[in-house]
Design a protein that fits this description.
The protein has 585 residues and is of the alpha/beta class. The protein folds into three domains: 191 residues, Arc Repressor Mutant, subunit A (Orthogonal Bundle); 189 residues, 3-Layer(aba) Sandwich (Rossmann fold), CATH 3.40.50; 150 residues, 3-Layer(aba) Sandwich (Rossmann fold), CATH 3.40.50. The chain contains 19 helices and 24 strands. It has an eight-stranded antiparallel sheet with strand order 2-1-5-4-3-8-7-6, with helices on both faces. β7 and β8 form a beta hairpin. The longest helix has 20 residues. It is elongated, with a radius of gyration of 30 Å.
Length: 585
């Protein structure tokens, strides 16, 4: 793992008070033991940001932040209590004394408040000045106010009351026995937004993951350069994993959860880990965005909306690749761009994502266009025995082959084995060629290859601007898929965070993601598909403003050119030259 995980992360408890004064929290036991904090949050509406320290019922010290924000539905307030150490290494009594000094109490007043002698208070004051490096009481008071370091009530509500005092634009006041540090609007340093991300930067998915991470980083930098989201900076907490083991991935998710991230983006991990990852993430309830296409993920979300309702798939499932494959064959054959010798096709599909419903659907799609699906060969995600697979394909003598693999090294091995046979079958693959510099790494093996993606850049001004930013930032090509998609994920989340007002109001953020359409560098996103996935054109809808176009490319002269759909095509299909004993390509 690229980032070392902490064994015992600091405990955090959070709650939200919505416009209807309902308290929403996953830390009920903590707030039952520290009930005054709930009252703080309820009374904080309209008061901006409050920060102070709190001595909990468990005797631990907590850093408390209370923030109120106006939304369309009314004021929403959130409170976060994070276990911490005392500022400047103060003891509990020294912290109490500093708080009294900061609000202008004399030594006798402080002694009455904290319950000790005046001489003892004087000793504590000397110790506090030394620890803060402050030459005077006034300097210590100013520093405590500037650092928002006051301690919340260290006495019971019915004990001695003191008059509120103003100091350096801030004041400490008593409200029903509860001391609160109040920061007027406009002066607050707002809690940053914490964005968690997991990228499999080792193993067979490394090229794709690098583009994802870079695309997300560009989006975060852009947003922070504009002042963040509603004045909140975005902290991008990125973790690298192998992507092929459950344990590594689940540890990373637990690490993000321990750091109270406000959303999670997930790179393309092994199909063996898909469901375990989204299920573990769902326990936290923060929004999760991903671009994996295994149909079982969307079905799992659809069947468990109460548990997985915060999970969003930003693209269609790979079932759309099946329909797109036959739609492409029909287009090329009926338009005369391709003249196959026969109507036989073979599909090479991933065993780990395979399901019988998918198989029967592929059969129906073939029959509807007059094609004969002669074989459906299942292969593992990695370590495919390509010589035997290619032999099985060649035995069917197909006019076209669909190869569903998302691992570049595996596609290279397949093409190499197939070219050895002299086959001129039309080869159609999915997604993998979106990875930056794919064509160069194939070293000519991909020439003539057809490939499609259910989400990717169009070459329009929006994607062109992003791609130019990427080149300037990294001196490299972004590819046509993952970099733009993860760039868009961050901007989608930013829009939802801004609409919700409070990034940690997960319910409001999820509602915004569901209800709105986002136009990004890889096209439009609307999560109206089954299992809360984005729509694809034309399978889900003919409204191209709501869906990603299913783009079909062909590698021509070492570059991928869009050849379908016709309304977006800038090039025509280029037939491969016919060789003796081969098929018309």
């Amino acid at each position: 793992m690229g980032k070392r995980l902490e064994a015992e992360p600091a405990y955090r408890a959070r709650l939200t008070v919505d416009a209807g004064q309902r308290v929403l929290t996953g830390a009920g036991a903590f707030f039952a033991d520290n009930r005054p904090l709930v009252g703080h949050a309820r009374r904080a509406a309209g008061e901006g940001t409050l920060r102070y320290y709190w001595r909990g019922a468990d005797r631990h010290l907590y850093r408390v932040t209370v923030e109120s924000h106006d939304t369309e539905r009314g004021p929403v307030t959130g409170l976060e209590a994070q276990r911490c150490l005392a500022p400047w290494g103060l003891t509990q009594r020294e912290h109490e004394v500093l708080t009294c000094v900061a609000v202008g109490m004399t030594n006798p007043e402080t002694a009455a408040r904290v319950g000790c002698g005046t001489r003892t208070v004087a000793t504590h004051v000397e110790n506090v000045l030394a620890k803060l490096g402050a030459p005077t009481r006034a300097a210590a008071a100013a520093l405590a106010m500037a650092e928002e370091a006051l301690l919340a009530p260290f006495a019971e509500p019915d004990e001695a009351r003191e008059e509120a005092r103003e100091e350096t634009g801030r004041h400490l006041r008593e409200d029903r026995g509860v001391w609160r540090a109040v920061v007027p609007r406009g002066e607050a340093r707002r809690r940053p937004i914490r964005l968690g991300a997991i990228y499999p930067l080792e193993g067979p998915r490394r090229f794709d993951a690098l583009a994802m991470r870079r695309g997300a980083a560009i989006a975060v930098d852009e947003l922070n350069a504009r002042g963040g989201v509603a004045g909140r900076r975005i902290d991008h907490l990125a973790i690298e994993v192998s992507g092929d083991t459950d344990a590594d991935l689940l540890r990373a998710l637990d690490y993000l959860r321990s750091h109270d991230v406000d959303a999670i983006t997930l790179g393309n991990v092994s199909p063996r880990c898909h469901l375990g990852a989204i299920t573990r993430a769902a326990e936290y309830r923060a929004p999760l965005l991903h671009s994996m296409v295994t149909p079982s993920i969307a079905e799992h979300v659809h069947d468990n909306p109460g548990v997985l309702g915060q999970t969003f798939q930003v693209c269609a499932t790979e079932n759309a690749y099946m329909s797109g494959f036959f739609r492409t064959l029909d287009l090329l054959a009926t338009s005369g761009q391709w003249q196959p010798d026969n109507r036989r096709v073979v599909a090479v599909v991933r065993a780990e994502g395979f399901d019988p419903v998918q198989a029967s659907g592929l059969d129906r799609l073939a029959a509807a266009g007059g094609w004969e699906l002669t074989a459906m060969v299942q292969v593992p995600d990695t370590g495919v025995p390509w010589p035997s697979v290619v032999a099985a394909v060649q035995a069917r003598d197909p006019a076209a082959v669909l190869v569903c693999t998302y691992i570049e090294d595996e596609l290279r091995l397949f093409l190499r084995e197939l070219r050895k046979t002299g086959s001129r079958a039309l080869v159609h693959t999915v997604w993998t060629p979106t990875i930056p510099r794919f064509e160069e790494r194939m070293e000519g093996l991909a020439e003539g290859l057809l490939w499609s993606t259910v989400i990717g850049t169009y070459g329009d001004p929006v994607s062109a601007r992003f791609m130019e930013r990427y080149r300037r930032a990294y001196g490299d090509e972004p590819g046509s898929g993952s970099a733009a998609i993860h760039y868009d994920m961050i901007h989608m989340l930013a829009g939802a965070w801004a609409a919700a007002g409070r990034p940690w109001d997960f319910g409001a953020v999820v509602r915004s993601l569901r209800e709105n359409v986002h136009r990004g560098a890889a096209g439009p996103y609307y999560f109206g598909g089954r299992g809360q996935r984005a729509l694809v054109y034309p399978d889900d809808t003919y409204d191209a403003s709501l869906a990603h176009a299913h783009l079909v490319h062909q590698v021509q002269d070492g570059k991928s050119r869009v050849i379908a759909p016709v309304e977006l095509a800038r090039h025509r299909f280029r037939p491969l030259p016919v060789q003796p004993g081969g098929h018309g390509g």
